[in-house]
User: Fold this.
Amino acid sequence: MNATSPRSSAETLSDDVDVPAEAAEAGDKPLLDFDDVLPHIGEFGFYQKCLFLMMIPFAWFVAFVYFSQIFITLVPEGHWCHIPELQDLNPDERLALGVPKTAELGYARCLQYDVNFTELVRQGVRQADPSWPTVACRHGWEFNRTEVPYESIAAELEWVCDNAALPNVAQSVFFGGAIVGGLLFGWVADRWGRVPALVGSNMVGLAAGIATAWAGSFWVFALCRFFVGFAFDNCFTMMYILVLEYVGPKWRTFVANMSIAIFFTMAASLLPWLAYWLADWRLLCIATSAPLLLAALTPWLVPESARWLVSQGRVEEALVIMKRLEKSNGTAVPAGVYQQFEDSCIKLKKQEDADKTYSVVDLFRSPRLRNTTLLLIVIWMIVSLVFDGHVRNVGQLGLDVFVTFTVASATELPADSFLTVVLDRWGRRWLACGSMVVSGLFSLGAVAAPPGVVSASLAIMGRFSVNISYNIGLQYAAELLPTVVRAQGVALIHIMGYVASILAPFVVYLSVVHPALPLLILGSMGVVGGVLALFLPETLDQDLPQTLADGEQFGRDQRFFEFPCCGTRPMETPKPALYRATSHRASLRASTRGEALRSSMIHRGSISSRRSAGKRSSDDSSHAGAAGAVV
Assistant:
């Protein structure tokens, strides 16, 4: 999320800039990329503010898609065997007579006494003899409606006891769909554009989400959730990336973090109360899916990615959009800038077509870069597992699940706000380590604390800390991996995070073995992940690696106990025009390929880039960092 100010127009856009002899002989002008033109169009003018507000429905969509399954499959902690012969008794009498007690859970959830209840009721017996034989539930279950005031699909289809793992299996199927959907819509975005991918992912989520309301069996439900998973991330991230592309570098940190902190957090905090108010899992499916229909209006409201258009050779269409921004913002772009931009795009497109193609395998060919890549994969898998584990563990904290979920979701706001303020001051390495370790310690503290408010509060603080780690994660990867394979590398890391998320529901399910196990595992993994982060190099105020050789050498000169917040930040030194032109080539490739952007949208297709001897300038760092901010 580096959001350094863009170069001044005098430095990069004037036609009479001093050019070295070699460049002058070739008749080259400084090459312009999209970020060079943005200051003239307006970095955060009226048009960009409108785009920022248009992120609201999409942020709500992704919150609904991600979290709604928790409340669709919610099962009250209080459930016990249904015994038809005891239905004329009040609930307390039914429990006292028909259900044995256990030391851990109070009344057993899966056992009843194996006696003649009709005869016992006729004799006036109202208290069970603990020595009576027991048997598994024969006639289904009763559920405590004071905990969850509606019947979820899990309660309706009785996914408890021997079938208690089915909601967790369905959640893992959802993440499997997210992997497939990410690959599919990443390809669609590269082939046909960001807007078609945005609309398509939302339409699939709409259809599958509404179809979920008619699911009458586990397999139908799981199939529907698999296709809902297609929309996860993509239904928001496509819009997220589009808006970041049109916002100037110095505003990207604000837009990237505040769109999550405000819009996403608001939707996540309101979702449990929507479920509580509707009190019907089928209506909840429809209510959280139907709004996705609004995405069909996107082609008329949201411009296609100018960078993608340029990457496809459709420069004229990109210029039309840029001129529309100029008009809406009431700005005036100097004469010749658009022509110079068009010439730059055409020249770099020709160069790119002749470039060598790199693959993600190249990340594993040299030892230091291989270690960095493996560390990033393992750390991101841990962050994803811990984050999703905390999200789904709220029902195990022993308090009202609706209140607890709301409070835990609200931690996104202070976490994102905190990160916006400190990330570019404190750096990535120690902040990633600290937030993960603190998350782990809070989680382990929740295990040691007595059940109730204290334990739940510590667990929620663990969620707050891992929110910070999650938001650092993929940006860190985007900054550490070399430009030539950045897109594929970040995509690989993101997909491995989905693989870890598939396991998260089963970590939470371990509460049936012992209630402390989920937080014990999440806490231990948080500490391990934080320690591992210390073995990565710092990227704050560093020229980011462009070639594979750069990636192999990156961070060699850094000391282990080096704290960016305590040192002297390097001074910006003016760069000659030829250097800027070389940097622009890398920057334009970053722009046209979208290589440092968060999520499964960080494209799966191969990235082409020629080897350049020049390092990336601080503006490239700004582009990769700010656009790489993550949810």
Remarks:
- Confidence is low (pLDDT under 50) at residues 1-27, 568-631.
- Residues 29-60+158-355 form a domain with the Growth Hormone; Chain: A; fold (CATH 1.20.1250.20).
- The chain has three domains: 29-60+158-355, 79-143, 358-556.
- The radius of gyration is 27 Å.
